[in-house]
Specification:
alpha/beta; about 45% helix; 2 domains; ten-stranded mixed β-sheet; globular
Amino acid sequence: MNKLSPLQKVRYTYVPKLPKMLRNGILEISVKEGEETTSVRDQLKIKELFPNTYGKKEIVFEKGNNTSTPKKQIVGVILSGGQAPGGHNVVSGLYDALKATNKENELYGFKNGPSGLINDDFIIFTDEYIDQFRNTGGFDIIGSGRTKLESVEQFALVEKVCHKHGITALVIIGGDDSNTNAAVLAEYFAANNSNIQVIGCPKTIDGDLKNEDIECSFGFDTATKTYSELIGNIQRDANSAKKYWHFIKVMGRSASHVALECALKCQPNICLISEEVAAKKMSLSQIANYIADSVEYRGNKGMNFGVAIIPEGVVEFVPEFSSLIHEINELLAGSKADSFNALANWKEKYNFIEKGLSKESMEVFKILPESIQQQLFLERDPHGNVQVSLIESEKLFSSIVKDILETRKANGTYKGKFNALHHFFGYEGRCAFPSNFDADYCYSLGYNAFMLIQYGYNGYLSKVSNLSKPADEWIAGGMPITKMMNIERRHGEDKPVIKKALVELEGKPFKYFEAHRDVWSKETAYTYPGAVQYYGPSEICDITTETLALEKGE
């Protein structure tokens, strides 16, 4: 048996807090139904695709007589996609609610994500097994995977496996793509009278699965607190050594919620927001000059150090860079990739590239450091496209900034010294011990998911809101997944998907950041969040994210 750390031993015994209405006891939880819902966009198309699950009502749980029909429930659960702190507590909460309703109820955990459902690979949870994972990070309780459930053949296999074991409901714990798949699977079951419910739970550390109903996806709180601790440590080191600029890339391929939250927590000199870059159509040169202005001002004041936060996917939001990537994807389409890869050295490959790119894209390509140029031609994704996440954007910007500063030094405007160090914080935050907020929130999501099952709902997302308040005041309920959906073009086809939530440039969190960043860029205004706290005053260990507090005006 693996040796347990002292924290791990103690966290096993932590009792997550539930919303008040979920603490009333299973027999005293009733349902209040709200208005019928419509999708966020493309209502006619979404309704046509989901005739059996579209337009359902939002619901809230409250104190009252439980009117659900008592019956034995056998439930399946999967973890889908990348890890996020708190996943184990979703499973624990689901298990505890299921057993509190009827000791004969069973929970099947399908291994390694959706593929476990297709391959009929599972475990049946017991108290002893569940207790090993309570309040811990990771998805190792059953593993996760990125197989997508999207074909009729897959749905038929899942239906067969569920009927084989008498499974009456599935809980899919995942992000926007996983919950989109959950909605499609729920529609299939409804259309085929399969008598199997599907309930989703909102997970992603990127924070882009949110809307007026989903205030926060689970894992975001813990991940940003973990990254902010590390950024704060680096800021303290920078302020001590006073000789390095640290360029720190953080998770966030499609949205900059993680970068913004870390900036609000730590007050670095620079933080790029991808959505702003796109809105202002900023070029690589404009971004680099913006950073260089801070370096120059501080360096001329004798402060040859600083910290810049770079979102993982920011280069995709730069119009000229996005065009370059598009042309590279076309340049290496099909068999042309084999011709390129067969070339003997980088010089030959460079000549191939120069002949294939437009003049405008080649001008962008030329200003990139050679290491970044080569990264653009690394292994492609399954669709043959550039893997933008492999691009070391933190090194890209520091390199261009260095060139700009050398020009300014030659012109006599810059008198400082510039030495850059680079970091990427990604996996460090995905499996951390969940914060008290995520431990409580996730347990509530799982517990609440079973209540949705008990009351017979299908195609719903487990919803816990009022999250900026103490857990006692949280509101539990559910919303149809179709409410969050729109139509997007994916791989040449129109697909129903959950609309990603990007940073709102008119939202309170960004506006606060925008109002303070000029001062932060010039002064050393660092804050040091420190490690995630689990024990002590609630204002320290149960504190919510800066983003959520600002959104709620607190």
